[in-house]
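We give the entry.
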Amino acid sequence: MWILIGFWVVAALSVIAAIKYRKPLLLTVPLFAMAGFMVIQIAMVPMPFWETVRFIFNLR
């Protein structure tokens, strides 16, 4: 649950910063945070990294 709250905080802060500093590139921060979280979760699986990625994308 704390991860979800953390993502909401990151998203809110990036929206506020994008409005304040007028830099729309700051809106990509939550996307990179989610991508980083996914990489960390995949790395925690006790299989080789690329095998895990292939397994995830082969699920139907």
